[in-house]
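B., you asked whether I could sanity-check this one before it goes into the benchmark set. Here's the sequence:
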Amino acid sequence: MAKLKHNNFLDTVVEVMTNAKEEGALHLYAEGKKFNGRYIETKGKKLFHFGTTGYLGLEQDARLKAAAIEAIERYGTQFPLSKSYISHPLYAELEEKVAMIYGRPVIITKNSTLGHMAVIPSVVKDGDGVVLDHQVHWSVQNAVQPLKLRSVPVEMIRHSRLDMLEDKIKKLRDKCRRIWYMADGIYSMYGDYAPLEELTALTQKYEQLRLYFDDVHGMSWKGKNGSGYVMSVLKDLPEQVILFGTLSKTFGASGAVMVTSNEKIFNKVKNFGGPLTFSAQLEPASVGAAIASANIHLSDEIYDLQEELADKTSYFNECLNKTELPLIAENDSPVFYIGTGMPITGFNLVNRLINRGYYVNTGIFPAVPVKNTGLRITISRHNREEEIRGLTEVLNEEFYLALKDTNTDLDRVNFAFGRNLNLTKKDSTTKKEFQCEVYSGIHEMEERTWNCTIGQNGLIDWQGMKFLEAVFSGNKLPEHNYEFYYFQVKDKEGKLVLLSFATYGLWKEDMLAPVSVSKELEEKRKEDPYYHTSYTLSLGSFLTEGDHLFLDRNHPKWKKALEEFLKEMELLEKKLQPETVLLRDFDPADKDISDIFHNRGFVKVDMPDSCRYDNFDWTTIEDYAMSLSSRSRRHLKKEILEFQDFFEIQINARVTSAQLKKYFDLYKEVKDNNPALNTFEYPFKLFETMNQDPNWEFIQVVLKENQEVIGVMFCYKNSTGSYVPDLIGMDYRYSRDFNVYRQLLFQTILRAKELRVQKIDFGLTAAFEKRKVGATVMAKCAYLQARDNFALESLDWLRKD
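And here's what the prediction gave me:
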């Protein structure tokens, strides 16, 4: 069968970023002819600046500016030579002064991204292992990527989950010489700290453990001589720790710095550090400014600057504590994160603040999960107390207006960040524009209405839902039990605008992942069958395909009806606590739907193409062949018709227990040999219930020479005129030599013609094969909302392509 297409993570990021840009919250241009750090100009407005990463304001210090100008006058705009040959005259002085800040020899790099790319592949040896905090900075994760080509195992843990880290250490310690844990000292979005004391204790417990910290956001405003947050806790640098600081951001200049107590590592990176060897060195102006900043860091003045910033940071915390604004992490860092939940709320609030004279940054995917969008506010020495107080007052006003504008509330925001799990009570006294009712069984839905709307596809007519409810309840294994929820939205006049259903169940997190990922995970599941599995709340179910959402888009306010449905899904999410919410089987070209879901915290992901056959305007096989393309006609003749004499085709409405067991074994062969759409194995109860249900039948392929059943198609007869080949079973000893899969597709078309149905819902996967027999292929996508990015990112590390 053909491989599935898989979502391109970069495409998803671009789409989300583009949406943010269109909303005026990203990719803005600063304006004006002069900066002082206190203000920034954009969109024709002069704004108080609460978005800088220059927390101490040294980038505007006259001494740094003068040193940069003097360096240009003396040495030019750049020194175009590799440092491996010769460094320009200011470099030695800079290295000496920065070494004094840390009390250790240092290596200066062009920036932290290049620094990580140079250091990580050099210090992590073959035979080592790596564990990443899933919120560690992108530059670290990017530098780790080449290690996969060297077969270095790379694992990931949830953010600061040291219990998970210890489990990974235990897993890797017998096969890895050293185990590197990579994290940020201070995380750039929420401003929270790495648990350094606990990590240090782990290094004492596990001799193999090494720590690698990116502390660029902790630099200068913390620690002795401004050496950063990590050094403020560790005081001295143990041999098992590698530290990255920065000469940009708060330091006020440019470049980055690596510090280590391990002389061998230092010499190795110094002598040959990949990009450090061949890339250009820092410009004279940057080195001059960095020297001037280092002089400040080596004086008592740095402590006065730190104290001044600490007072302003503390004042902002005091101001926020008088409000109910959702501050995600409270500490003494100058990074503050106010959660908004949905992207559209964040975009709305950012623009409101701009209109009121304040600039802040938007925290957005992939830096945070999509539903954890918010405002990243930073405090610097440039900000005055009256401006901090003014920002708080304006924020406290505009925040709730932004919630109202985007049809959300504080409870929904708190839930998105796990801050408050109390269910919102419905206001039953107010007659809303739309009413969304939720039911737990298909028997509560009116059969005719269901079948005339959503039930016209696949296995999801009223009887099909009844069948699914019977099969996936009361089973021993958790993966074989679903909870069913049915949604009905009507307007004030009682007109039906939306109808849908969702299931809650245990999924494999790699269901839509590349085959290579699923194969690797299945090996691990031999020991732990529930490895990388979690509960998902999804439109539809594993066995259903098609339009799981009926939406009357002729209704003038259909978007509001959809909003009510999404609110009800969110209430259900609060109750069930799934790791993932999945809205599936949509047209990827539907921009209206895409915008609505993106703005409400969902990420678009590709699904396998859907296939449908509905061209029954033929009477003979010759006529059918003429309805195909010339290439497909050749395929029909050589790969299907020429094999027909080898088979007996039987249509069975009911079979014996022995036959059913054979069918089940054939299904399992397909399941085991086709991890492209990786689901749990279905229970035998499913096939037993099929065998007793008059709406199901089996197309059986028997090999004449030995009367062996070598293929079976499990087909559902939808009451509205669809024929649904929902599952397939094949004997792989014969499947390739006799083209069994193609024969089953063809026999399905012949049977559907005989039954005079309107269409065949061929379902997902193998679009290339289904197109050959005349099926129409339709692109499909889903919209994913995860509690965090952990599963998405950790599975990405298993990719082989």
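One thing to flag: Residues 301-321 form the longest helix (21 residues). Otherwise nothing jumped out at me.
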